[in-house]
Structure formats: structure tokens, C-alpha cells
Amino acid sequence: MPKSPSTSPPPADPAPAAGRASAFASDAPQGLSRKGLILLAALGALLAGLLHLPPGRFLASEDWTRFHVFNREYLYGALRAGRLPLWNPHVALGRPFLADVETAFLYPPHLLYLALAPESGAAVLLLLHAGLLCAGMALLARALGMGRIVAAAVALAFVACGAVSAPLASGQVLWFQGIAYLPLVLRLAMRLQDQPSLRRLTGLALLLALQLLGTHPQLFWMQAVGVAVFLMARGWPQLRSWPQSLRLWATPLLAWLAAHAWASLLAAAQYLPFLELVTQGNRQARSLKLAGAWSLGSEGLASLLFPVPVGNWSDHLFSGSAVVALGVGGMLVRRDRNARALTALAVFATVLALGTATPLLGAAVHLLPGLSLLRVHGRFGMWTVVALLLLAGLLLEQAQAARRGRILVLVLSCLAALVALIHPTARQVMNPAARVAPPLALGLLCFLWLDRQALRPSVRTTLAVALAGLTLFELGLGTHVSYGTLVTRREYPAERPVAEILAHQGLLQQGQSPPRVSLPFPFARENAGMRLGWSTFSGYSGLWLERTWSYVHQAAGLEVPTTAVAFPAANVYRSPFPLPDTSLVLGLDPQTLRLAQAVTVAPRAQVVGAAQVVPGDFVQVLRAVLRSPDLRQVALVEEDVPSLPANPVQGFQGSARVSRFAPEMITVQVEATHPALLILGEAYYPGWTAQVGGREIPCLPANAWMRAVPIPAGKQEIIFHFHSTLLIPGALLSILSLALALVVLRRRA
Predict the structure, then answer these.
(1) What is the pTM of this model?
(2) Residue 43 and residue 50: Cα distance in Å, rounded?
């Protein structure tokens, strides 16, 4: 068997930087051929298709059916109709739409949705990203020193592992899309560290920007932290003397940060409006409790060895018992700086994934910018899986370390079998023989394979086929357990009846305000109104407006949740019409489970003749709103409205009627005997303005969450418009940054 380049003796200490391209000269072999890479990408896509596209799997997953499918329909339906959907009036009393990065509206591959139905587009994109993930992992493995066969095996194992399958089983499609770029990003970061150049930094920034446009920001942040740890550990052994060696070590880290800054500018058109949404959102509180929510528990750690039937998808990290045993054994490859860096990454990621189970999270919250704003969810465990996979591949290639680690791998496999036998979670998945046999069999196969040089070629081939086949069987079983646990078939029985009732009453006509309903999950999906035409005070979203989030809970007599912040607490639905000020017309009675029609409906638009200023912020206003018996005479505001008195004027009369409703433009016919305040029962947000008497003035927040504008006396037409205040500045930044990148690439070429 040919000797791998990584088995050669380690090079001598590098010479000073003068006269050399870099003190971190790459010792990686050449990559795969183009045909081999395309074939491997096709195999990865085929494997992903077999695992995730059968009926009842990805396209039936929770987050896809409750959240992403509605976003795709709403966005690309509007684009096909020639409208840019800046606002979504159907969920959470109204909220920005394109400002939410989970729409991923600027991610180029999503243009497929213009031609394909959401389900078809999602399936095609899943296959494309799986191919990218497989090819990128193979290139990364080759860059780390693995042979072609081992690199291909590592890549295919990554496609099928729990860190990739579980997000898809949960419907976290953006998380999966981000993971697809992760191996290629790490490979380019290694190249930038080995030979820093402006051209390589530009290429990395472009790749990061593309990933950022199509993924969840939390994954992007975790990737940035993980790669930084890897680069620091990889460069540290090269330190020889200060300050020259310190400069050589720090330069790639500064380049890594610069690439992220450039990528952020390239993605500014999508992320500047998102940052404005964050400032108005319900995730502004910084706390250790938030950062450590849903950390990796004992089930998550056990999932590295066997599939676990738990409801939190980030606790599904199963990569096969052989991978764990070989990965830990790969930590023996101490003379390889890549192995040392991967070991440091695995330890760092596991500690952070454990969250509050260790005292280190408290220190990390203060040291890592952004950690206090993000729920860890144990999602750092993805780096643990990546590191173990790559360490396993390195051990298979390092002949000397492999022979030394044979006993360790066999012992680890026996321990894995013991844990699978006695762990209470494992008993829910398989019988004792099925739990113990695979780890023991794989341990024995690994034991023999690590000394394969002493075996005949036919025996080596048989071992390789058996090892690959049993590992893929294990990974397939893990995917089956993930889907069996995370996918629940639901019927949503209230959706169609409600749509039929509202249509029969003439409330779903184009140009009318979408009627508000109160329908708890699982009788209806929170965002189903985006498809069926109604509106609701509920919604499923990663980021709510803080005003509406607080109002929905406090008006229902509940404490405002600070960790579970994607959809309202179930106790909100204590009656058919729990929030009468939201103009509810139809609700589900929680006692009889029958639909109820509202007898009186609060007006969607109203005119009041007085406005009282409540000192403090909207929280104080909300408390005053909840104490006030009637808001139809006096509005509660946060700043003085000079044209209005604090108390109603005797003889004041006024009326308001929404004559035309569109998501970004609302026309209201009003009449008032005195200067007044026009209030819409729609969520306040910066960017809403109103044309009053030929002038465009910004809207004001009223009654804690509503949208309002002062109007003069008389009969008139008021037109509300929504403009994303930061979309155009963000687009200009993106265009200029892209132009600069193209100039750099052209000049350097």
C-alpha cells in the first residue's frame, strides 16, 4: 500500500521568514481530481437524498412545515407578483419580513424558488448543499494529509452523521446550508494561514458572505469562534522567538477577522435591516441563563456513541462508535500540528456545548463577544463531531500512531459497548444485543485495520468494505432514530375550516385588512395565515418585536418568557378571545374545542382626541395600558403630542375606516371634529410613515405596541407606508464591497 505523505518524518524547524513564503508553509498533499470531486459530490448528494427525501422525512419536519415553507411561499409569491415583501401583516400583529435573516432573500441559490414549488426547491437545494458539503469535507481531509480513500470515507460519514441529519430532521434548513460551507471555509482559512495573501483573504471573504446570506447567524458565529481556536492551536507550536514569531502567529488570526468584517459588508443589504430588527426584538437581554439554555446534556454526550430519542435536535450528534474511538485515538498523533489543533478544537467545543454543566461558560460569556446573546443549545457539539471525524481520518493515515493506538481504540470500543448497554436512553432505541454488537464489531475491525500493513490485500479490502458498510448502517440507524423522534405527523384540523368560514363571511377579499383569529397550535400552525389570508397575534419566529411579545403575554396575565422566545406560551390561549384589543373575529374555545365567533370586535383603526404621556419606556406604557379600562378615548404615548390635549375635549367626535389594506401600504378614511390621533391596531416599527395633509411624517408608538399618527381636524385620507430604513444603505455597502473584491481578484490574477 503506498505510503501516505503524512507518514513522512516531520520537517525541521522552519527558517526565519525572510526568503520564505511563510513560516507556516503547507505540508498538505494535493487535492482530488476534478472528476473525482464531482463523483464524490454526487455520491454525497445521493446519500443525502436516500436519508432525507423519502416521504415523512425532511419535507414533513417541524420547522419546515411550521415556518420555512410559509416564508418561501410568501417571499417568492410576492416577487412573482412584482412586489418586494418588506412587511408581514399575518403574524405576531405584524412584523418586518425581509429584515428577518431567516428569509435568506439574497442567497443566490434560493432563486430556484422562483421557478419551483417550495417542496421541490427545498429538495433540489438539499441535494446541492449535500454535494457541496461532501466535496468540501474531502478537500479539507486531503489538505490535512489524508489519502483519497480515507478523505472520501470521512466526507461521506460527515454527510450521514447526526450533526448534519438532526438539523434536517428538525427542519433547520438554514443551519444545514451553513454546515455545507463549513469544511470549505476551514480549508480556505488553513490556506490563508499557510500563505497569507490579499487574494486568498478576498476569496475567503466572498465565500463567507455567501454562507452568511444563506445560513443562521448563530452557526456563522460558532464557526468563526471554532475556526479561530483551530488556527490558534495550529499556529502555536511554530512560535520560536518573540516578537517575530508572535507576528507570524497573529497575522492569520487578524486576516481571519478581516475576512469576517469584509463578509459582513458584502452581506450588509441583508444584515443591516436585521440589526435594526434586533434592536427592536425580544432577545436583547444578556444573561448566563440565556446563553446556557438547552446546553448539551448527558443524552447529548451519549449521542456520540449511539442514537438518542430526545426532542432537542442539537442533542443528536451520532457519528458512529468507530468514529468516536478512532477520533479519540487520533489525539495520539501529537507530532502533527493539524491533529493537535483538532484536539484543541474538540475539547473547546465540547466544554462550551456542555454550557452551565461546567463553570467555564461564565468566563466564556465575558470573553467571547456575542455569546451572552445566543442560546448555545449544545450546538457547539457540531465542532466536536467535525474534529473527531478528521482525527479519525488522521489516525487511519498515520501508520506509526495507528499501530500505537490499536489497543486504545479497542478499549474505547468496549467502553462504548458498555455505555450503550447500561445507559437508560439507549434502552429506548434497541435491544441489548443490537446495542452492544455494533461497537464491539467495529472496534475489532478498527483494531485489525490499524495494522493493515501486515495483512494481505484481499483481507484489507474485505476489512475496508466491512468497516464502511457497518459504519454506514450505524449512521443510517441514527438518522432513522432522529426522524422517528423529531418528526411528528400532524393534521392541523382548524386551518381549512377557519379559512372557509372567513371566506364565506367575505373577510378574505383582496384589499381588506386580514381578519384576526386566535388558533393555538397544533389546531393550526402559527404562520398559516401567510398562506390562507388571516392574521393572528401569534406567530412562529426566531425574533419577535419586543413590544408585541411583551404585550401578548402581559395582557394574558403571564410572565414574559426570556428563553423560549420563538412562539407564545400555550397559556395565552386561556379563552377564545384572550386579547380583545387585537380585533379578534374568530377563536377556538379551549373548553369545548369549537370555533367561536366574536360578538364585538375592536376597530382596526380608531381616532382618539387625547393623548397622555407615560414617563419611561414602553414597559411603563404597557403597565398603564393594562390598568386602563378603555383606550378608545385617550391614547397612552411615550412622547408628547403637542396638538393633542391630555384629556378628551367635550364634543369630540371622530371615525376611521380602513379603505384599502396592503402589507406595505394602508389607506384610512378619517373624520374628526378636532385634532386627533389616528391609531392602527398594527405593530409599531421604525420605517412606518403616514401622508397627512401632503406631508410625510413618521408614525408614533401608542398604547405600547400600536402604530399612530397625529391628524388635523376634518375629513381626509391618510396613507401609511413602510420603508426599510437600512435596506438601501445596506445595498450600497454590499455593492461597493463586491466591487472592491472583484477589483482585487482581477488585479491579483
Answers:
(1) 0.90
(2) 11
